[in-house]
Amino acid sequence: MNEIPRSPGKPRLSIDELDAALRAGDGCPATARLAAAAAGELAADELRALEAHAAGCAACAAELELARGFFEPAAASAELDELLARLPARPGAPAPSARILPMRSRPGARPARRVAWAAAASVLLAVALGVVALRDGSAPGLPDRPLDDVVRGGRIDWTTALGTLPAAPGRLAWGAVAGADRYRVEIFGVDALPIAAAEVERAEWTLAPGDRGRLETHVTYRVRVVALDPSGAELAASDVAELRIEPPR
Amino acid sequence: MAIDELEDEELVRRALAAGRGADEACLDQLFARHRARVAGWCLRICGDREEAADLVQEVFLRVFERLASFRFESRFSTWLYLVTRSVAINRGIAERRRRGLSLDDEQVPEPAADETPVDERLAVEQRGSQLRTAIAETLDPTEARVLYLHYVDGLTLPGIDRLLGLTNKSGSKAYIVSAKRKLRRRFEGADR
Known about the structure:
Chain A is an alpha+beta fold. Helices cover 30% and strands 18% of the residues of chain A. In chain A, strands 1, 2, 4, 5, 7, 8 and 9 form a 7-stranded mixed β-sheet that branches. In chain A, strands 3-6 form a two-stranded antiparallel sheet. In chain A, helix 2 (31-38) packs across helix 4 and helix 3 packs across helix 4. Chain A is globular, with a radius of gyration of 22 Å. Chain B is elongated, with a radius of gyration of 21 Å. By secondary structure, chain B is mostly helical. Chain B has helices spanning 8-17, 20-46, 49-65, 76-98, 121-138, 141-152, 157-164, 172-191. In chain B, helix 1 crosses helix 2 (20-46), helix 2 runs antiparallel to helix 3 (49-65) and helix 5 crosses helix 8. The chains are: A alpha+beta, B mainly alpha. The interface between A and B is large, with 88 and 98 residues.
């Protein structure tokens, strides 16, 4: 037997279970605070409190190490020099070798997202043009939803309170959409990547402990739900709502 | 003031507010300032120059795509780290899941994906509590950190070796083997 220990007959340990077990209770600082600590942004008293917590919390200690590795000056090495030499001098310019970087050959590696910087340039231009629009109304950092993407039904309204909450919500609910076969609900982190998502048949989503555990305090998340018909076509979508956990002091 | 004298955050403000030409110059400046930092971290985590180069490009593409998400609540470099970490970790997790949660090349078994059926939730909560106690009472801090970095953050074992500066013969793998042995012993003892 060569597994993480478990009781006989029980399912294997999930990543979320291990994550929770490696934390010192529920009071872990947000990853952003750990990053701020590593970056030297915190006041001395907050830094002391955070380091005291990390001393007894494997998860936060590990995240702190990970962040410190970013903010410490990288050791000079020929390998790093060669890596930097492969990068273009500026976004949008061709790489110094005037070729696209070679495909990775490591067995089992996923196909590289081989992005030519020429394509990057067009993304940058699109960003430059789209930023003002993103700042007006639609949630920053999330893909804009074209209006013609919604076939019928229009907007979904949230029926549970969002915004700033004292604790991570256990359930999210919204108004049912006629003809909906299921709903896809997603929570996006500060970097606009989804941190939790589900497809549910009813107009509500009960968050698993692991999903709730990912919602850190003092971080603004964005939440969106989309109604899907049996073919997977989108019937309606909610506005992107903000969700922030601020425990009472 | 010359563009290379501006703070990162001011460059972001100008990039968000300005037209195309100035926007590109500000983004260029941010890229020039931070590429080495991002590349160094990615290289440490990946250990593979080509993969790290790919990751660096992906990070900056995401940063520039999502620049409007930056709320000026921290330094730009702190936000850049959060994006870098997220891109790297998501890639690692996606890769492991694509590979069927197998880390045979590292000969370390993988916990199952997060797909706990509803009828097992109570058992899971109880087991989680037992596991937390067992970890706190039996593992040394490095073992616990290595478990977290490998299983939760999805870092490879060589990446963890480099990050934590582990110089023992088997590096982080030795810590994982040791941690699992201790936990297994603890749980087997509890089952008797």
